[in-house]
Structures are given as C-alpha cells and as structure tokens.
Predict the 3D structure of the following.
Amino acid sequence: MASTLALLLSACATDASSPEAGVGVSVLPSAGTAPPTDGASVADPHQSAPPSDAQTYEEVEVSDDMTLVRPLLWNYEGFRVEPEVRAPSIVLTRADGEQVNLRDVTEGAYTLLSFGYTSCPDICPGTMAVNASALRELPPEIADEVRVVFVSVDPERDSLEVLTAWIANFDRDLRSDFVALRPADDGLAHHAQLLMHVNPATKEPTAEGDYAMSHAAYQLLFMPDGKARLAYPFGMTPDQFRSDLVSLVEEGWDPAV
Amino acid sequence: MTKSLRWMLVVAVLFSMTAVACSDDEGGEGGETEGSIAVTEVWGWSPTPERGAVYFMVENTGTEDDRLVAASSDAAGVVQVHETTMADGTATMAEVEGVDVPAGGSVTFEPGGYHVMLMEIPEVLEVGSSIDVTLSFEGAGDVDVTAEIREFTGEMEGDGEM
C-alpha cells in the first residue's frame, strides 16, 4: 500500500534527514527542509528546520484514502490533505464526562486533531507539548481561534480519569483547555479513524505482556468550516505551527501562492 | 503572512539555531567519554509525573563496532531502550534489545526515534533538575551521564519525519 512517492526537486543541500538519522529512523525525507543558506554557520542538521518557503515536493500516502502532499510552491508549513475530509458525526466522551459530537468539536475554530494514547512514550506527549508551546506564544486573538483535540485510540487504558490527568500536563497554563476524547470502545475508535481516512491504530504486544499502540503520527488541522485541509507530521516546530495559524486566522485559507 | 515577514522569521530562527549549535559545542551537556564511546547532548523530559525519556547522541570514535545493550537509572523504577519508527505517517514504538553504534559512526537518540524510556518514576522530575543515567555498552562498558530535565518545546527536532 505504501506506494510512497517522494521527489526532491530542489537544491536542498542541507537535507534535514541528517547523517545521524541514517540509523533507520527516517523513512521518508523530512518535511521541514531548511532552505539553502549562504554557507554561514548553519546549525547541526538535526536541529530544527526553520519555517521556509516550501522547496521540497513530498507526497505521502498515509492510508488507502488519504494522501498528504507538500506542494512545491505553497503558503503553508503543513501538508495538504487530499482529499479534504470532515470528521464523522459520532459521539465520544470528553475527559470531563460530557458527551460530545466529534463533528461539532472540529467546527467553528482552527482545530488540531490527533489520535494517540496516554501511555505513548514520546509522539503523543511531544505533539501536545509542541501545540502548547505554539499556542503559548501566539497573540491571544489568534490563539482564541485555535482548538486542540486529542482522541484516544486506547480506551481500554485511557479512562476518563487517566485522560483528564494526562491532558492537564499540557494545557494548564493556556487560555483554553485541550479537548481529550474517549471513544466508548476499540471499535468506535477504529471507526472514527477510518471515517477520517486515517489508518486505524493497532495494538503491538510488548515483551512484558503489555502492549503499545501503532498509530498515526500526524495532526489534522480542521478549518472553521469543519474540513481538514492541512496535516502536520510529528516533528513540526512551534514556529511552524505559529506561522500557519497566524496566516490562517488573519488571511483565511489561501492555498495559492 | 507576507513573503518578507516570512523571511525575517527564517533569519531570526537561523540566528537562534546558530546560538544553540554554539552552546552545544562548548560542553558535552552531561556527556561522558568512555574509551571510544562519547555520549553528548544529553537531556531528558518528563511529560507526565510517571513517565519520562532521555535523549542523547552516541559517537563511536574507535575502530570496533559497539552496541548499547542496556540503560539504568535510580530515577525510575523501569528503564528501557525504545525505538519509535515512522512509516507513512504511522508511528510504532517497540523495546529494542540493543542499538548498534558502528565504528566511526554515531546514533542520535531523539523524539520520534530511539529513546531511553523512564517508567514508574517515584519522584517527579522537575524541569531544571538532573538525573544520572548509566548506559551500558558491549565494548566500552558502563558510561555514566547526567541528563538535565527540560521543557519539551519541539525546537530541537523539527524534522517533520513521516
């Protein structure tokens, strides 16, 4: 299924998939490739890539029904979601016990949505920490237009209590709470992902008789009209989020360069 | 955002990156060298009171391949070496039995890749505090390093790997 096409069209001398990353982590060229600089003391290749005018075309087929595309000339740091997708109208339980419709929480704001689980070692907490970091330094009038939604793919271990405690590690100093949602069971979690064209998470048994979840490591960004048009792979920096969020809130969705 | 604004931002970020790179050069940041194995850029974070991860760079300056086979620390009840791998936007995490560090090569432990996972942390790891971690290599033996607990801002990665 993974007919992944990744073309490097530019003169990106400083490919961010650094020599160190040669140790089998990076499967695809990275998203945030640094622009060529005039030979000054550029930081380590594994340092963060700055927001840049997109120079690298990338196309990643993340599921049978969704491809993330980073066009060559492009106004955003994020990838374009093709085809754009809406959240299904299904009911999940918010960490505080309230029943909410997933479609409702992905409308009316710029909504960053990710799937994950609270026992996740670094991708899920890292994603939330970067979101918090991005929001913390946005002007309030921009930050107020942004919502963060985390959907558990591990309802078995992520009880409402666990979710409440976990999400509070990230949003406690922010103006608005992150929304942590719990599907009633694995089946509903699976369904929610499929309906958003996301490959459903799977359980991977560990040596201790426990399990880890293999899951999507990107966030979808829903526009206020409820359509996800941008996606952000894990590893995007707060600067990159801020750049896109400011541009979206101030100028609206405008994919043309 | 206008083009010029965008480029000002790029310049600003490049400046800050340079600053980070310089500070990295000056000290090993809790690093240690044992024989031909050098461990530098050591840091950790603890997103939740019970869990944390430690990251670093291992360099093998010798002529023999080596292998990280275990990690331990008094700061956590369970310490494991994990690897998160990404393929087509999906992340999978697994405990690994060892991490090869080839002669003349280096391996970076970083979010979204290899990490030393801390579980069952008895005492909350505050930002700014430090913990001792012992990394055991097949050839070089034990290397003791100190990891400063930091805020995870994502600024140090940003590869956007899929």
Remarks:
- The radius of gyration of chain A is 18 Å.
